[in-house]
Amino acid sequence: MSELTLTVMRLGFLAVLWLFVIVAVQVIRSDLYGAKVTQRPTAVGRRGTPAPTPTGRQQPPQQQGRRGQQGPDSGRQRRSAPTQLVVVQGSLAGTTVALHGQTITLGRAHDSTIVLDDDYASSRHARIYPDQSGQWIVEDLNSTNGTYLDRMRLTSPTPLQPGVAIRIGRTVIELRK
User: How many whole angstroms separate alpha carbon 140 and alpha carbon 151?
Assistant: First the structure.
């Protein structure tokens, strides 16, 4: 081989070796320090002020109907309708999410509404959503370890009643008024 070919091969090998070292250092650094986690704001608002959504934006104020009218756009919820989702057990105990008619996703994925730091939770574990009548429904999203509603494993979307425990691994969540 010529001297030029040998020198190019040495420089190529050196570049690949440095690339390997840099990638190895980045992997070790991310394992030691982890990914940067931002705290999600809890969606607890005062009466009359919109609560922030899990994305940090505020809900637009709903239009108030005329005095005495209670249509679907009056901004008032039924008294028996649940208003919040509360984590009662697990690493996020005390976390509260206000219910504004949006779908709430539960899992380890960073884009979930409630991010579960639980070894028994899947990335996209379950979701809670309102149906057309305003009833809240819980659905397991084909998770590995299952979602339990009051000690019964969910096999299909099931209506939720306030106070009934939803268990995902070590995390327990309840719908409250």
Answer: 14
Which amino acid is it at 45?
G
State percent of the chain over pLDDT 70: 73
pTM of the model: 0.55
Give yes or no for residue 68 having a pLDDT over 50: no
Place of tokens 């070292």: 21
For residue 27, the model assigns a pLDDT of 85
Q: How far apart are CA 77 and CA 79, in angstroms?
A: 6
Task: Tell me the DSSP string of the chain.
Answer: --HHHHHHHHHHHHHHHHHHHHHHHHHHHHHHH----PPPPPB---TTSPPBPTTSPBPPPPPPPPTT---TTSSPPPTTS--EEEEEESTTTT-EEE-SS--EEEESSTTSSEE---TT--TT-EEEEE-TTS-EEEEE-S-SS--EETTEE-SS-EE--TT-EEEETTEEEEEE-
Return the structure tokens found at 61: 């104020």
- pLDDT tens-digit map of 136-167: 999 999 998 999 998 899 999 999 888 899 99
Find the Cα–Cα–Cα–Cα dihedral 34, 40, 42, 48, rounded to 10°.
Answer: 170
